[in-house]
Amino acid sequence: MLGVCRGRRKFLAASLTLLCIPAITWLYLFAGSFEDGKPVSLSPLEAQPHSPRYTASSQRERESLEVRVREVEEENRALRRQLSLAQGRSPSHRRGNHSKTYSMEEGTGDSENLHAGIVAGNSSECGQQPVVEKCETIHVAIVCAGYNASRDVVTLVKSVLFHRRNPLHFHLIADSIAEQILATLFQTWMVPAVRVDFYNADELKSEVSWIPNKHYSGIYGLMKLVLTKTLPANLERVIVLDTDITFATDIAELWAVFHKFKGQQVLGLVENQSDWYLGNLWKNHRPWPALGRGYNTGVILLLLDKLRKMKWEQMWRLTAERELMGMLSTSLADQDIFNAVIKQNPFLVYQLPCFWNVQLSDHTRSEQCYRDVSDLKVIHWNSPKKLRVKNKHVEFFRNLYLTFLEYDGNLLRRELFGCPSEADVNSENLQKQLSELDEDDLCYEFRRERFTVHRTHLYFLHYEYEPASDNTDVTLVAQLSMDRLQMLEAICKHWEGPVSLALYLSDAEAQQFLRYAQGSEVLMGRHNVAYHIVYKEGQFYPVNLLRNVAMKHVGTPYMFLSDIDFLPMYGLYEYLRYHVWTKGHAPTNFAKWRTATTPYRVEWEADFEPYVVVRRDCPEYDRRFVGFGWNKVAHIMELDAQEYEFIVLPNAYMIHMPHAPSFDITKFRSNKQYRICLKTLKEEFQQDMSRRYGFAALKYLTAENNS
């Protein structure tokens, strides 16, 4: 093995790789295979939509949904074609010139009708209809904390974006974990006419931490109570959503309901569809006070300006303090306190029709909310069982949810015609860079890939690790696609230290990976493996982008830069942590390595690409190299140019596991133009090296010419 240093501070170790043919046969899971457009399951734990357990009716509903999705995809392609034709032209649009009228359903606006029962069906008002202007911004607030809730938010947002026709402004009350994940996701998603602001949930804990809460949502389940203080003072109204919500219609229809509020109505809520607040679920069941069945707070319309004038903060605090003297804690988090306030002040509520919050917990009256699937507006998975809840139509609801779960989020980047988007510096710079490329260049697609922004979901699964305090800790860094998924368990068994992985997947494949991981005792037993999903886009495998994503989110002082099909020897993690490296690291002398007992220095040579351990602040990989060829070679060359020294470490090695040829290496071997473009990119990289490092970089050009 090798060790490298620049000055006395930068160390790098490259592991020797041994090619071996294992006696056992590896089964490769090609998750890119589909049957009838449906992903093949990797886990037997959960029935898939094409399982025999699905009824014929459910299958028809699923197929109907898929047809709908394909129609929208075709519409998106048409929109893209129109955009490309319109490029360079500057059509002028005036805000407010075009408006759309939504037919709104009846709600009970009078306090005397508040407990008249659940509204069935989808009725429309006669006469003048409320109006949402075409370019009016709709504000949505969501409380989100942790890794799993961040995944739920993505599905919710997809369902909203799928139907929306208006600009959206998301206000996310998030802890540090969710903010890191979702900020990166939205920055790389780059959806037009969508703005996202974050509010530090951890700073709000003191506002509600005095309230004991038995609900599984914990302290974050109480934070909707303080939105009047948290959100901007000039924000007048907002739709508040739980993370387990799925939209089946345009959210503008719900936004338009604000126009129906009268008098002192400041809260729009759907009646609770279970018997919880009736107090008859079991013997000695004692719920918080509520008006009739009470109200569910999974979907709330808040008139913030009026609530502030009513001193909402003081109102809910006094109510909570009084009730806690007898109840001691909340059972349903903020919902209990909202209901206690409404019990005393029924005039505050505008009761929404129940199809705006069809609650899919066990033993609810949700089936009375709709006569047909076209009546559905919002589905709320408000049971801890989530998709395994009991409901007569649960298969349809599950299929609708799964459709958005696996829907290609890149298709939701469509423009809103007639609604000018806010200027985005990153987007403008990207367009400028792309416009400078020559589309007639035979290597145009290679060059364009360098500027492609891939939607990225960091920490897709729960991650928990604190680096050792002795500053010797090492994280294994690698990247993979679905066809290498079977390597994960073996690597986790061989490497007990932290791991940072970037996975190149489609939205559907990401869900297959989730099911696979959740069904694996080995993977679920490891919380120090960070899985970062980089979503597929374009025709090349962005290998160096993936490596950079995985490197960027390493939390230890050192990184072991590996590949997914190389299996570390047992004990390599501890060996790398406690081995005393001298300065240095380059091409491995295998004959010397076989007998070496101490580290030794080697020099860089052309096409050298060892697997190395480096400090976390090492240079990134060059993104111009995609697919097969020179992606690691260029990185090692950059390290050498920055005066890293290469040291081989004895008694440390990896095993190269056999695998099917990648799609990109097949293209390299069969496509002459691919090879020509790779050669061109290599020459341009060497020219860039000469500009950056001057005379010292001459040896790379000389070595290449002699190789």
Structural commentary:
With 707 residues, the protein is of the alpha/beta class. Strands 1, 16, 17, 18, 19, 20, 21, 22, 23 and 24 form a ten-stranded mixed sheet that branches. Strands 8-7-6-9-12-11-13 form a seven-stranded mixed sheet, sandwiched between helices. The protein has a three-stranded mixed sheet with strand order 10-15-14. α8 (312-327) packs across α9. The model is unreliable at 4-55, 82-105, 110-128 and 580-586 (pLDDT under 50).
Tally of DSSP β-strands: 24
The percent range for strand residues is: 15-25%
Distance between the termini: 24 Å
Indicate the radius of gyration in whole angstroms.
29 Å
Q: Could you describe the largest sheet, including whether it forms a barrel?
A: 10 strands, mixed
What is the typical, i.e. mean, pLDDT?
78
Write down the overall geometry: elongated
Q: Which bin fits the share of residues in helices?
A: 25-40%
Detail the poorly predicted runs. Answer: 4-55, 82-105, 110-128, 580-586
Judged by helices, strands and strand pairing, the structural class is alpha/beta
Count of DSSP-assigned helices: 22
GO cellular component, one term: Golgi membrane
Pfam families: Glyco_transf_49, Glyco_transf_8
Keywords: Glycoprotein, Golgi apparatus, Membrane, Multifunctional enzyme, Signal-anchor, Transmembrane, Transmembrane helix
Membrane topology: Single-pass type II membrane protein
What is this structure's SSE topology?
Blueprint: E1 12-19, E2 34-35, E3 38-39, H1 56-86, E4 99-101, E5 131-133, E6 138-144, H2 147-163, E7 168-174, H3 176-189, E8 194-200, H4 205-208, H5 227-230, E9 237-241, E10 245-247, H6 251-255, E11 267-271, E12 295-303, H7 304-309, H8 312-327, H9 334-344, E13 349-352, E14 358-359, E15 378-380, H10 394-405, H11 425-435, H12 444-449, E16 456-457, E17 474-481, H13 487-494, E18 499-505, H14 507-518, H15 521-524, E19 529-535, H16 543-552, E20 558-561, E21 566-568, H17 572-578, H18 590-595, E22 600-602, E23 611-615, H19 631-641, E24 646-656, H20 663-670, H21 672-693, H22 698-706
Parallel strand pairs: 1-24, 6-7, 6-9, 7-8, 11-13, 14-15, 17-18, 17-20, 18-19
Antiparallel strand pairs: 1-23, 2-3, 4-5, 9-12, 10-15, 11-12, 16-19, 20-23, 21-24, 22-24
